[in-house]
Design goal:
single chain, 377 residues, mainly alpha, 10 helices, rod-shaped, disordered C terminus
């Protein structure tokens, strides 16, 4: 018959649970910053975009200024051309006025033509001395009956017509250039307005992101303040718990020696944790506590496995004790004494051995402990 194994109660599992709970609390207290790298990168991207738009705006402004200067120059050139055209045709009116003055007979018709021409000249630009001289020469050649003078008059008209065509061609080119410059200026102004709008949108987005980051930083500062307060409170609780457990370890020396060493280790661990909470970085502390938790869990597993293996190896002795008990309590006691002697040979004469209670529980479950059989002391 094989006896079933009974669980052995040690303080180590509870200690491991406490350490894991503390690690979880510290993990919550050490939550990462809400201001992420993505937020900073987005803020920098807005700065880069605004800078690029600013350079584009400067470029468009420079081109607009250059186009405006060209437009101004071409507009002035067009006005000069218009004035030159007006003076060119004014000389013909002036020549006609001179022709009227040469009439010997003054009749109402001549007076009317003279008045009309005078009014026309009053509204036209003044011609220079050279144009006056040319007009007088054309009048002279026109009134002459000499063939050579008539030929010179035709040649003068041909030159004037060529001059008029040149002025008209120049006028057409200037008008086209001015219109193109006006269109280009309009496009540049539109580009400038678009860039201004994009800069405003980017600045608004940047300001919004900056405000969000400031709010997150303020929340982070408040959270850090709360974390520090929680850590301070946790350190105080750990220190208090360490002291109380240490006092309990001191009393257990007389009351229950088997837990003295675990309680002493727990007290030292709690006091160390109280120091580490306020001095060691949170992530390092979490790493240490997790490693300690794993080490403690491994030690607990090894301890339980070793106790179980020892108990399994002791089944033969317990079976022998059971068979001997059939002959009476004296025989059972003799077998028990023999078993106790064997165990003391294995582990030393130490009543605090953790296997003591295990063997006692196994004997009790097998009803092998009679009135004359007492637990080990």
């Amino acid at each position: 018959m094989t006896a079933s194994l009974l669980p052995v109660s040690y303080p180590w599992p509870r200690l491991a649970q406490i350490i894991i709970a503390l690690a979880g609390l510290l993990l919550f207290a050490g939550c990462p910053s809400v201001v992420t790298k993505e937020d900073i990168a987005q803020l920098k991207s807005y700065d880069g975009k605004i800078t690029k738009l600013g350079r584009d705006l400067e470029d468009k402004t420079l081109k607009l200024q250059q186009t405006s200067d060209k437009l101004l120059a071409k507009t002035e050139a067009r006005l000069d051309n218009q004035e030159e055209v007006a003076r060119h045709y004014t000389q013909f009116v002036f020549a006609a006025r001179l022709a009227v003055d040469t009439d010997v007979q003054v009749d109402p018709r001549s007076l009317f033509i003279k008045d009309e021409l005078n009014r026309a000249l009053a509204g036209l630009p003044q011609i220079d001395t050279d144009m006056r001289a040319l007009a007088e020469q054309r009048l002279k050649n026109g009134l002459s009956t000499i063939a050579a003078d008539r030929d010179r008059l035709k040649e003068s008209y041909a030159q004037l017509e060529a001059k008029a065509k040149t002025l008209e061609t120049e006028k057409t080119q200037l008008n086209a250039t001015v219109n193109e410059l006006y269109i280009e200026k309009g496009k540049l102004v539109g580009e400038q307005n678009r860039i201004h709008h994009e800069i405003k949108v980017a600045q608004d987005e940047r300001n919004s992101t900056s405000r969000d980051i400031i709010i997150k930083q303020q929340e982070e500062i408040a959270r850090q303040r709360d974390d520090d307060a929680r850590k301070d409170m946790l350190a105080r609780l750990l220190l208090l718990a360490g002291v109380l457990v240490g006092v309990g370890a001191a009393f257990s020396v007389q009351l229950y020696p088997p837990v003295t060493l675990p309680l002493g280790a727990a007290s030292a661990g709690l006091i160390f944790a109280a120091w580490a909470v306020v001095t060691v970085p949170t992530w390092v502390l979490i790493l240490i506590l997790c490693a300690c938790g794993l080490a403690i869990a491994a030690a607990i597993y090894i301890k339980f496995s070793r106790t179980r293996d020892i108990a399994d190896n002791s089944i033969g002795a317990i079976e022998q004790l059971k068979n001997a008990a059939r002959d009476g309590d004296d025989t059972a006691r003799t077998a028990y004494d023999r078993l106790k002697h064997e165990l003391h040979d294995w582990f030393g004469d130490n009543v605090n051995n953790p296997l003591h209670q295990e063997i006692h529980n196994r004997l009790k479950s097998l009803n092998l402990l009679g009135k004359v059989v007492k637990p080990l002391k």
